Amino acid sequence: xxxxxxxxxxxxxxxxxxxxxxxxxxxxxxxxxxxxxxxxxxxxxxxxxxxxxxxxxxxxxxxxxxxxxxxxxxxxxxxxxxxxxxxxxxxxxxxxxxxxxxxxxxxxxxxxxxxxxxxxxxxxxxxxxxxxxxxxxxxxxxxxxxxxxxxxxxxxxxxxxxxxxxxxxxxxxxxxxxxxxxxxxxxxxxxxxxxxxxxxxxxxxxxxxxxxxxxxxxxxxxxxxxxxxxxxxxxxxxxxxxxxxxxxxxxxxxxxxxxxxxxxxxxxxxxxxxxxxxxxxxxxxxxxxxxxxxxxxxxxxxxxxxxxxxxxxxxxxxxxxxxxxxxxxxxxxxxxxxxxxxxxxxxxxxxxxxxxxxxxxxxxxxxxxxxxxxxxxxxxxxxxxxxxx
Length: 389
Description:
With 389 residues, this protein is an alpha/beta fold. The protein contains 14 helices and 13 strands. The chain folds into 3 domains: 2-144, Arc Repressor Mutant, subunit A (Orthogonal Bundle), CATH 1.10.10; 181-246, no CATH class; 254-388, Rossmann fold (3-Layer(aba) Sandwich), CATH 3.40.50.
């Protein structure tokens, strides 16, 4: 069976690949496109003449249409390929056509099959500059078929969402957006499903891409509804993060929440030694002491905290009852400075609540005290601020 492909271009394929001869000549390819779109109803000779040879006289027109049909039938394997005399149509048993299959799939409700057949705009890139009426016909057909595709994709997306299949719904909405990237309503649907899937960051990225495309292609600001929804996603994300942080604070049972100060790790090109380990351990001990003053969480003692190790991982921390926060960090020494990085981690959520880097001269004897006091203040301020927000 021959294959006439009209989505994403226009070509005829046999078992060995694209056909040559009349089946590759632009105006005769246009005849096949018209017949394909005509479907079972077919297309009259007079329509072929009006769209493809509008300047021909009546006699000349009849002659060129007859010649074109003869050449096509010959190259397509015989008279059966194009059936009829006045009203012409492609024989389904000889020439398979994607656009005909697309519309028939939609008619029988096989929407996903129809969407799979649509691989690009109808007759994309195919032009007949000498036949303006055909160009207008192709533009109209392209728009109508694209509209049918859009309806099909939205139907598939909504059906998937109704069935709770958010990943499938998102895939259909993304394809819909790819085919119509400046449509604000579709951009909102993509963002909405991303948020429902728990991917707020993805929704915000989609909003940024939409905003950039609108500016680049239209020279206009993005649709207000898209911008407002993105702003609401950011507000919700801040509220969720604040609630997570507030949940760290004890409510009636202080023993139910604790903070562990883990041993700080060594960073740097020089080898670790006993002196540097003692310095790091002393720094962690100072932090434990400072955090124990007025912190609204229980602070694990040095023995319990150090027993966890320098980098136990979230799974190990979660296995320890009562640990809500972990303070971890690293120490890097250079020839003249010591650099300490400290990070407060939400154990259950696995995210960083706060982090900061400190750098002091290597010969500063008060470096440990200063850094420990500052870290304790930062942690205390973070928890107090979140509790009151």
